Amino acid sequence: MKLSINKSRSLWWTISSVIIIIGIISMVISWQTPGIKSPLRPSLDFIGGTRLQFERDCTRPGNCDKPIDIAAVREVAKEQGIGDSSIQLAGENGVTIRTKDLTVDQRSKLQNALSEKIGVFDPQKNQIDSVGPTLGQELFRSGLLALLVSFVGITVYMNFRFQLDYAIFAIIALFHDILITVGAFSILGLIFGTEVDSLFIVALLTITGFSVNDTVVIYDRIRETVKTNPNKSINDIVDDAVNQTLARSINTTLTVLLTLFAIFLFGGETLHNFALALIIGFTMGAYSSIFIASTLLAWWRERTGSSTPTATRESMDASAES
Fold it and tell me: Which residues does 252 contact at the CB level (< 8 Å), separation at least 6?
């Protein structure tokens, strides 16, 4: 089966636009939500504070007979002066509280008060993490700087390897992948309380590398076809390039996704959100390389009537081949 992606490019752009707009709306809502106040629900890695996770001791008779009443947990938190904390249930018998920095005495009082309300906790399963706000801000700045540097580097490489319009549409495809991934986590943060940490920044950087790699493969085929068939329609050239690389793109993406799903299911809580971000981003990366970066290039070349590389770039390629 041969895909004619340019015939339906308005459809692909509409699908992407709708998904991105939904994500942006979610980020706006998240920004205005008390307890979050940012486009994504940040973990302690970024904002600093204390995270406490308590789990009931189910070896005690009758201790786990009733489900945890989150309203009771919120009431206890309010009594302890941390009513604005982020509180979530962790499974059937656990509760996670993310709040401001607490002293050892405050933690003990909170734990004791919760034990009286919802049951005795297992001390071996309790977890308490603290992160200073300075470290959190530094992680956030470093993450944004790393993303910015990667975008600049990719733009320079794509401009040198191909041409400026290739580079621009490759970067647009990257923004597409990043926005959809960020939007998805914003929605998950609002609905399920999913937090983003420093590993999320690592995931975004990994997504940019994967996405641009897939785009380069298709662009390489487009450039070679333009050189050998300069009079051929740019839409046909792009369609042919996509079809010639489609099997490779699908096989590569599926192979990576199988590994990521294994990490998502069996990698433990620490890697759970990291793997999920990569699953979303890699899927969108394969999609954008085929349906966004390629169709935008075809649309631009068709509009400007520019379907052949510049003389300078042709001479560079010829010298490299010789």
Answer: 214, 286
Q: Which amino acid is at 177?
A: D
CA distance 111 to 106: 9
Close Cβ partners of 315 (under 8 Å, ≥ 6 residues apart): none
**DSSP one-letter code for 306:** -
Helices (H), 37-132: 44-47, 70-79, 104-118
- Model pLDDT for residues 68-124, shown as the tens digit of each residue: 888 888 888 888 888 767 788 887 888 888 887 788 888 888 888 888 888 888 888
Strands of the chain, DSSP E: 49-55, 86-90, 94-99, 127-131
Residue type, 203: A
For the chain, the average pLDDT equals 85
Distance of alpha carbon 30 from alpha carbon 192, whole angstroms: 12
Report the alpha-carbon distance of residue 301 to residue 106 in Å, rounded: 65
Tokens of 137: 């801000």
- Cα distance between residue 132 and residue 110, in whole Å: 20
CB 245 within 8 A of CB 218: yes
- Residue-wise pLDDT for 46-82, tens only, equals 777 888 888 888 888 888 888 888 888 888 888 888 8
Q: Which two tokens stand for residue 18?
A: 């709708």
Overall residue count recorded for the chain in this entry? 322
Q: Give the residues across from 196 on adjacent strands.
A: 42
The DSSP-derived string for 278-296 is HHHHHHHHHHHIIIIIHHH
